Amino acid sequence: MLYSQSDFSADEFTLDHFVGNTPLVRLQRMASHTQATVLAKLEGNNPAGSVKDRPAYNMIMQAERRGEIRPGDTLIEATSGNTGIALAMVAAMRGYKIKLIMPDNMSQERKDAMRAYGAELIEVTKQQGMEGARDLALEMQQQGQGLVLNQFGNPDNVQAHYLTTGPEIWQQTAGKITHFVSSMGTTGTIMGVSKYLKEQNPDIQVVGLQPEDGSSIAGIRRWPEAYLPSIFDRSRVDQIIDIPQIEAEKTMRKMAREEGIFAGTSSGGAVWASILLAEQNPGAVIACIVCDRGDRYLSTGLYSVED
């Protein structure tokens, strides 16, 4: 069959049409010893490979609609990786320049992906961390170098998950979900999904994850009080679990080997916590966020370790 150019002019053929609507799959082996159902939402299926495609797209599109930015402008953002990659993808799609600031200890794949989309990458030291990256982004904005989208304080981050991730999980579980589990970085995912799910059923338990003291898990943080994301509302989270780094890494590898789910460290932490909850709550239906794909962690050597 031959196609004409007009056949491909509809909105459903544009890249942004494929942000969201990711699969929710049941763990077949890792949670088989429990009497609960553990479901993993595979956010690596988004166009730029992570859950951050959702807020990245929404933050840029909403800013456009409000007239705050227009194609050709320069955007600035501090990121540990996934949001930066997603913003660079949307910036390329919509015609923006973008400067991304990140700690230099993030994986090489993340840095290369940002540059592949045309972003300018500015690195701060591991010691400066995300706090230093956020401070530098604001300094650059004050110097007139561009606009900071500020994923840590931008309501459009939360809105993205309220409008998409939450409704998808509710529909995919036919309203049977009892627990929602999410790692916390900017906290946009857990804030938006919690708001939506609690409106449907206030008894749903929302569980947030942070690294335990001394652990370093890419994408999630224990924020100092001064840097706690302003979009975070503690009342929307029923329980917070501290994730041991070694358990997150072991579970990440086990997911690939036993479930065929290839993901990053924070996703390993989410599945580890979900299985813990499954052991404690027979009959529960637990959905967790597998926020990205494992291929952006290969250079770290984490997948070469024998457990």
Report on this model:
This protein is an alpha/beta fold. It has eight helices and ten strands. A six-stranded mixed beta sheet has the order 1-2-10-7-8-9, with helices on both faces. α6 links the parallel β7 and β8 (205-211). Residues 17-292 form the Tryptophan synthase beta chain-like PALP domain.
List the helices and strands and how they pair.
Elements: E1 24-26, E2 37-42, H1 53-65, E3 74-78, H2 82-94, E4 97-103, H3 108-116, E5 120-124, H4 129-142, E6 147-148, H5 155-172, E7 179-183, H6 188-200, E8 205-211, E9 239-243, H7 245-259, H8 265-280, E10 285-290
Parallel strand pairs: 2-10, 3-4, 3-6, 4-5, 7-8, 7-10, 8-9
Antiparallel strand pairs: 1-2
Helix pairs in contact: 1-2, 1-5, 2-3, 5-6, 7-8
Strand order of the largest sheet: 1-2-10-7-8-9
Q: Report the structural category.
A: alpha/beta
What is the total number of structural domains? 2
The major β-sheet equals: 6 strands, mixed
Q: How many DSSP E strands?
A: 10
> What's the helical proportion of residues?
25-40%
Which stretches are low in confidence, meaning pLDDT under 50 for 5 or more residues running?
A: 1-5
- N-end to C-end Cα span: 52 Å
Give average pLDDT, whole number: 92
